[in-house]
């Protein structure tokens, strides 16, 4: 049985290295420029955002964009999207499924709301891929149910280095942003378990932020067996910081493995230069 895994471009899997995955892009608007987020490199996006005084905006993939990925020889399709509380991508995928199956009843399509983004969505896409490769479930319905249960356990954390996006988006006043930058405040954020992002701690300086990040992993991983978990680290133009986090995590925890990725288009736009997203 052939299975296709479709992800939107909030997922940080790298094109070319994971042929099992098919991407559906977001539309990005920076100033007067409008483009699909997979049309620009990470560094191009960072440069465009720094040159523009207004906030970057995005629009989710249309149902038609998802339908295009369904037209293939796969008998089963899994779709993983960014949290439905952060974007309309999940709803677009659900509508696409309904439209497509009206005329193509020979396929099975399962749409998964990641309740996360970036590294969190990546973790869920890999969970499905691994389950398919190891044939852990007898039916695709069983895999879908197990994936939804896994989604509820995934923990996502963020460390913000660049606060300019928060200022431009109106999430932080200019004066507060300047004050935070002057004091080297590095917010550590995480998911609330329902697909929303909440503040975990305001850390002063990158070194303290990384220490607080390790404490957050320890606290949020208490109910999990980390030996069975993979730590996914997505970075926005911060390879050294990502490697440092990997080193600290290897010293303190017993993850099954640790994987590092570059943020793709959407994550780059809403994270920012130097930011980190991790999930486990």
What does this molecule look like?
The protein has 280 residues and is an alpha/beta fold. The chain folds into 2 domains: 3-151, Rossmann fold (3-Layer(aba) Sandwich), CATH 3.40.50.10170; 156-279, Hypothetical Protein Tm841, Chain: A,domain 3, CATH 3.30.1180.10. It has 10 helices and 13 strands. It has helices at 42-51, 63-70, 89-103, 119-134, 140-151, 164-168, 174-182, 206-220, 239-252, 265-270; strands spanning 3-8, 21-24, 27-30, 33-36, 57-59, 76-81, 108-113, 156-159, 185-191, 197-204, 230-235, 257-262, 276-279. It has a 6-stranded mixed β-sheet with strand order 10-9-8-13-11-12, with helices on both faces. It has a 4-stranded parallel β-sheet with strand order 2-1-6-7, sandwiched between helices. The protein has a 3-stranded antiparallel β-sheet with strand order 4-3-5. A hairpin with a 5-residue loop joins β9 (185-191) and β10 (197-204). It is globular and about 55 Å long. The two termini are 29 Å apart. The relative contact order is 0.17.
